[in-house]
Write a structure and sequence with these properties.
Elements: H1 3-21, E1 25-27, E2 31-32, E3 42-50, E4 54-60, H2 62-73, H3 80-102, E5 106-108, E6 112-115, E7 129-136, E8 139-147
Antiparallel strand pairs: 1-7, 2-7, 3-4, 3-5, 3-6, 4-8, 7-8
């Protein structure tokens, strides 16, 4: 994966927050993921196949996802099912926007949603993974990109 590849994902995530919520997010400095766990309360995972292989996931707190839901649908009381749908949709939208740049050979899976921060997400060991920290409305989240 090149620096330009990583920037496609960063730009897609930043555009998501700006377009969907009307508020800008900021990206921190990407770093190579080590053995540390990069998982918050909810994670949306997308598998990548075709011309590229790997996966991406975005992980965020329930509080952040509730606030995004409030921005989108205006509901004050957001349940766990809505939060799960949202994190999956965020991952799907980010990957889908990157797919537009790479074309039809960049195939993405249906999102898989994991609830809970008790464990790390298993990534392909032979492919380096990069963590991109994000901040939106005072909430921290991370996008992890693992792609060959």
């Amino acid at each position: 994966m090149t620096e330009a590849d990583l920037h496609f994902f960063i730009d897609s995530a930043l555009n998501y927050f700006n377009e969907v919520t009307g508020s800008r997010a900021t990206a921190g400095i990407p770093y190579l993921k080590g053995a540390e766990s990069v998982v918050q309360e909810y994670s949306g995972i997308i598998g990548i196949s075709g011309g590229r292989k790997g996966c991406i996931y975005i992980t965020a707190s329930a509080a952040m996802l509730r606030q995004i839901s409030r921005s989108i649908i205006g509901l004050e009381d957001v349940d766990a099912a809505t939060i799960k749908d949202l994190i999956g949709e965020v991952a799907n939208t980010i990957s889908g926007n990157v797919r537009e740049a790479y074309g039809s050979q960049f195939m993405i899976s249906v999102p898989v949603v994991i609830e809970g921060a008790a464990h790390d997400i298993k990534l392909p060991e032979e492919i380096p993974a990069f963590v991109v920290p994000f901040n939106w409305a005072g909430f921290d989240s991370s996008l992890v990109v693992c792609m060959e």
